[in-house]
Amino acid sequence: MTKKSIQKSLPGLILAGSLLVAFPLLSGCNNNTGSSEALSHISRAETYSEQGQFRSALLEIKNAIQKDPNNVEHILRLADLYLQVGAAKEASELLKPWLQENPEAVALTLARAYVDQGKQLSATETLALQTPSSPEDELEASLIRAEALRRSGELAKALALFDDLATSNPSNTEAITGLLQTQVNLNKDTRAIEIADAWIAKNGKTSDVLFWKGLAQYRLNQLEQASDTLTDAVGVLPTSDIFLPVRRNVLTTLSRVLTEQGQMSDAQIYNRILVENQNAGAQAQGEAAMAAIKEGKLEEAKTILRDTLKMDPENEQVAMLLGAISAGTGELEEGAQLLTENLDPETTPTQFIRAATMAQIDVGDREAALKTLDRAVEARPNDNELLAMQGILALSLPDHEESGIANLSKAISNEPERVRLRLALARHYLQNNEP
């Protein structure tokens, strides 16, 4: 079963708060009875998802996995549900244990999970582990490559690929939304609106396409048109028993548009919906910590963040913020541990990568710091801060001078006015008697 056929049979979404699932189970036997019972659960899951009862669909898929734990198709179904709800991290964590023994089965879906997290480098590497076995899989692989290009900043290449895919697959929603998003990224908002209108005329209204059209209109300060478009998007949002990512995007943007139009009462309606569907406690704790930081009350901020981590130990953003503050206030071991354990070189913001590498250097682990920067630069080759950090650190370590010179030279080429980088490179040449 291909990824696309799974998505068609299970188009629904799952409760984000229920994103917990066992890894491949070690108990139970994969006998005929178990397989038959699992298929019954799958059938019920399909029925529930078609009715928009996605919480029940999730439970049925998990029951199927319990009955038939070695069936990778059930794992893929659950991963697809995670992806559709926007839980890409949970999807990748579910699939990773299956990759080594089932690369052809899971690599495509895992690559999608990676690219949806902004881990375009991992997505590209994972795609190389499989060969598409159907036109649908070939299309999905191309869509992932295009999105990887877009997220890595190769917008011209991404635009060309999305354009080709949208032309050859004129009714494919992912292709057209990828094209629209890339046009917006390139500040070609008028063109995005034209493309969206043409697609809607042929294929009808969808919430995703209307969202990107409305956002483009908002960016052009066409507030009345944006309000109309986003209101239309609200009307065609998919029915579900959970709060979908596309619903959040549409309502957030519509609320902003209405606010700028002065329609405060209408905006407040959508704001209340948004507030009701967020973790108010975590947000309040985060705001309190940020207020303490702004006032210079770092010890108070650390206390708040530690309390937040006790309640939500999986919150990587809180952990990284606490790590950065701890490292900056002399608690190097705690800071380095928190930062490195929660850091992802592909997706972590540059300021946290800087804090993490500085903490690693301070505790004497320069090689680990360089490894982090190498991966970050590979994922974000146009980030000048990362290039500069990697270049300066690499020049200080034996056997890494070549990459340091290359990245430092690229950073200087991008920003010739950065004298400090020129001095660092010149100092290296002088110390090594190089011209």
Describe this structure as you would to a colleague:
It is built from 24 helices and no strands. Among the domains are: 127 residues, Tetratricopeptide repeat domain (Serine Threonine Protein Phosphatase 5, Tetratricopeptide repeat, Alpha Horseshoe); 125 residues, Tetratricopeptide repeat domain (Serine Threonine Protein Phosphatase 5, Tetratricopeptide repeat). Helix content is 74%, strand content 0%. Helix 11 runs antiparallel to helix 12 and helix 22 runs antiparallel to helix 23. The radius of gyration is 24 Å and the shape is globular. The chain is mainly alpha-helical and 435 residues long. The longest helix is centred in the N-terminal third of the chain and has 19 residues. The N terminus is likely disordered.
Q: Find the CATH topology of one domain.
A: Serine Threonine Protein Phosphatase 5, Tetratricopeptide repeat
**Helix and strand succession?**
HHHHHHHHHHHHHHHHHHHHHHHH
Number of strands: 0
Radius of gyration of CA atoms, rounded to a whole number: 24 Å
Helix content: over 70%
Q: Please indicate the percent range of residues in DSSP E strands (runs of 2 or more).
A: under 5%
Identify the CATH homologous superfamily of one domain. Tetratricopeptide repeat domain
Shape: globular
CATH architecture of one domain: Alpha Horseshoe
What is the SS-derived class? mainly alpha
The oligomeric status of these chains comes to single chain
Supply the CATH class of one domain. Mainly Alpha
User: If you average the pLDDT, what whole number results?
Assistant: 87
Largest sheet: none
Total number of helical segments?
24
Could you name the ranges where pLDDT drops below 50 across 5 or more consecutive residues? 1-30
Report how far apart the termini are: 61 Å
